[in-house]
Amino acid sequence: MVYDFSLSHAGEHARNFLGIWDGKMVCNDFVGYKAGFEQGITEIGCMAHARRKFFDLHVANKSQLAERALHSIGGL
User: What are the Transposase IS66 central domain coordinates in residue numbering (predicted)?
Assistant: First the structure.
């Protein structure tokens, strides 16, 4: 696990830091990472964000599929 911080929100910092690395990365939706995903980095989604989408869907229309997804995610 690596955590890197920059005061700048420029994508250049992410590109310089990641270089030619091509592993798997859990990250936020910062646009500066997008170029890396096109060059071999695999984006791993965040379960908290995935769960929120199912939660919102269930609240909005009582989706049974969304409810099952919430139970499955809860089991993780």
Answer: 2-75
| Average of per-residue pLDDT across 48-73 | 95
Q: Coil, strand, or helix at residue 24? A: strand
Structure confidence at residue 41 (pLDDT): 92
What are the residues facing 43 on neighbouring strands? 25
- Flag whether 38 is in a domain: yes
Q: Rounded to two decimals, what is the model's pTM?
A: 0.58
Domain span at 36:
11-44
How many domains does the chain divide into? 2
- 32: phi then psi, degrees, rounded to nearest 5: -65, -20
Q: Which residues are CB-contacts of 6 (< 8 A; sequence separation ≥ 6)?
A: 13, 17
